[in-house]
Amino acid sequence: MKERMQKIKRLIDEEIDKRLQNDNPLIEALYKSAAYSAAGGKRIRAIFVFLTGDLFDVPEEKLINSACAIELIHAASLIMDDLPYMDDSQLRRGKPANHVVFGQDVALLASIGLISEGMQLILNDGKLTCDERLKVGGVLSSSFGFNGLAAGQFVDLKIKDKHVNFEIIEFINQKKTAALFSAAGRVAAIIGHADEQGTKAIKNFSDDIGFAFQIVDDILDVMGEEKIVGKTVEHDKMNFVKLVGIEEAKKYLKEYHQKAEKALEMFGNKADGLKEFSQYLIERVR
Ligand code: IPE
Ligand code: IPE
Ligand code: MG
Ligand code: MG
Ligand code: MG
After folding, report:
1. 99 C-alpha to ligand 4 centroid (Å)
2. What is the pTM assigned to this prediction?
3. Domain spans of the chain, in order of start
4. How does DSSP classify residue 96?
5. By the number of CB atoms within 10 A of the CB, which of 12, 167, 183, 207 ranks highest?
6. Which residues of the chain are under the pLDDT cut of 70?
């Protein structure tokens, strides 16, 4: 399993590297900025696409572009998240944040470019039928807009700590992180032509494990060390863990993890990969 995850990570790293080659000297710095932030990362969302594809025996070549697309869009969201008028973070993936190296103007344009590139990867994917491209594109594009990442990030930034309650933090974590995360599972289910029951199971698993993933991220923000986590940690910023306390957060983490695994029951042994993956996600330290 670990080997498979590493193999997928290498494949995605190579594909993304190839995809962000440029031969126009006029926009060299823009591409450099995009490639800088598209590199690295754990590639968790791409791995999730491939492991979900395994449930439906999808050949890898039908998943590569969608997996890369999600990673590019995710990378774009990290560039924006770190900007001074957002989280004002200086460190990302063990390196200075994009805007620290390339400036805020270039960082923002690189982020837009990455989102566009991600959507093009799907819309031009010759391994998918037009119907598959349409469905995948629809799920993915809605996951980072007003019903997903943008909405979650907005509330995360704008809500005053004194007004935060459980429902609001739940909204933030579902939208800013679980939405894109969950899209990865749903995209693979679409390409795998999952039936209604399978689609529902994957949606439930994806939503719950996506939420659990952000609880771990919040735990790392509160308790983590920058040199291990590889990004600026925000010990004082309001989040799920700050609101409910560390012990309660761990209980929720366990609950979401159990709920997620339960959704996989119908797949029997075929879901062993996804189970190991979800275990890894909740135990991670970076
Ligand atoms: C970090 O995501 C941002 C969140 C949405 C929580 P990851 O922990 O997947 O970051 P990388 O891609 O490995 O850097
Ligand atoms: C992640 O929220 C949401 C994103 C869309 C990037 P955070 O602000 O907690 O992410 P990190 O901790 O900086 O990676
Ligand atoms: Mg943030
Ligand atoms: Mg942040
Ligand atoms: Mg965080």
Report:
1. 13
2. 0.97
3. 2-285
4. E
5. 183
6. none
